[in-house]
Design brief:
By secondary structure, the chain is an all-alpha fold. The chain has 3 helices and no strands. The longest helix has 20 residues. The termini are far apart.
Length: about 55
């Protein structure tokens, strides 16, 4: 019984996390997920860190 409660709780937690990640995509006009590439991040470019694809 405890495992079932833990399983349901973890599924709910994952669902809430996915909904929070999708807020920007769903509710902002032309919303997108931020780019994971290093060349699109200004602070990484200032430090001289580049994308592995650019090397």
């Amino acid at each position: 019984m405890k495992i079932a409660i833990l399983f349901i709780l973890s599924i709910c937690l994952v669902g809430v996390a996915l909904m929070l990640l999708g807020v920007r995509v769903l509710f902002v006009r032309n919303g997108r997920f931020p780019s994971p590439h290093a060349h699109d991040n200004p602070s990484l470019r200032r430090k001289g860190i580049g994308c592995h694809r650019d090397n």
